[in-house]
Every structure is written in C-alpha cells, then in structure tokens.
Design goal:
By secondary structure, the protein is mainly alpha-helical. Helices cover 73% and strands 0% of the residues.
C-alpha cells in the first residue's frame, strides 16, 4: 500500500510529539516497520 506524503508527515509528527512507534502504529493501523523505514529515510536526508 502506498501512503500519501501528508499521511507520512502526520505519522512522523506524532513521533516528534513523543509518542512511541508502537503506539502510533496501533493508532493508525499500520505496521511499525513501515514507520521505522520512514524515520530512517528522514534521518538519512
């Protein structure tokens, strides 16, 4: 499944607010590994 840029930014903003990857994944019903990959991409840039 492909997620929009807006959705990815929303997820990453939740992490910035201090929520755990596990909590955000559960809230938005996505795999936590997906979030980890998005986070890695941001950190590399």
């Amino acid at each position: 499944m492909s997620y929009s840029e807006h959705f990815r930014r929303k997820i990453l903003a939740k992490l910035e607010e201090g929520y755990s990857i596990r909590a955000v994944a559960a809230q938005f019903e996505i795999n936590k590994n997906t979030i980890v990959e998005w986070k890695k991409r941001i950190e590399i840039k």
